[in-house]
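Database export, one record per block. Field names are fixed; values are copied verbatim from the stored entry.
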Amino acid sequence: MSTSLSDAVTQTIERETTALPPPSLDLASIRQQGDRRRRTRVAGAGVVAAVTVVAGMTLVSALRPDADTAQVVVPPMDFVQGARAFYDQDRHVMHLGGRTFPLSGIDGLDTHATVTSSGVVFFSDRQQPRLLQVDGHVIDLAAAPSSPDHDFHPSATAEVDGSRVAWLVKGDTLTLGITDTVSGRTTTPDLGERCATGCADLSLAAVDAGFAFLEGDEGSFAVPLDGGTPIEVADGRVTDARNRVILVDGRVPATVPAGLGEGWRFARAQGVESLLTFDGGHELYWSTVLPSTEPEGRRLRLDLPGGTSPFVAMDTDGSVLAALRGTKEQTYYDCEVPSGDCTRIGVLPNGSGDPMFIGVDG
């Protein structure tokens, strides 16, 4: 990753808007709008007040940054209809929350970053986890590793409601961070003996029902968010977990590990890029038809033009984002679940790259 998102956004916006008067941002109004929309703000860990060890995990108490001094890099966005995030690779333009702004010099938007109801989680070139909030501010979720492993690919994901964001970075050791978007606290659950050696290939698959699911070449395991011993889940790769449904690419275990508790079940993924709808009931994978994760369940069908396999992703409000690539242009849609009704939200001319959704390596 060549530069941080905050630097890149700031540089490109300054370059594009040098001749324009600066926007007038009413921060009090922004805060009121955010309260009405029930959008939470993640506290940064730039000023650390205390560090304690509780139940096998590190608790970092951080002071919330002053909203009047936090860096504003884009105008406030509107996530009421979901983030509706997609990226124009050829023209280096981000479409996010009803806004369009120039953005260049960032690698890994489709792999390392993730979109949540609180904004976009991304990483600096030193693996520092950061958040571009809905109100346009960029804040730090934690400090960068002291000696970042540049061969490691950081990853991030979030719970369905956006209440907790998980991120994975590697310096001298592997660190899993969980940031509570309401309180602003960040904790680092102990990975224990599971990652005493190795784990260099790990990435975050999902956060669901109190567990973070990590997957790699040696299988998948779950880490309790409130502390505890990691639980081996599957020999294959967990591709997603939603509403206590665990999607596995490879051999599906016959039974659910007892340590996860009641109400969990497995489903077989069609591939490593498979995703789940927020209720865990259906699978997204390169098709307008979403098969049920229940053996006798009904399929969902997205009301999209036929003939082309869509690029798909889940949006922050539980709808499905889809993109169809034609001979001259890429058309983006937002499709409701479970009706399958789709609304066109954007059209981009075709270029050298495939349609790109944030955090979805399709």
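Remark 1: The chain is about 5% helix and 35% strand.
Remark 2: The chain has a mean pLDDT of 78.
End of record.
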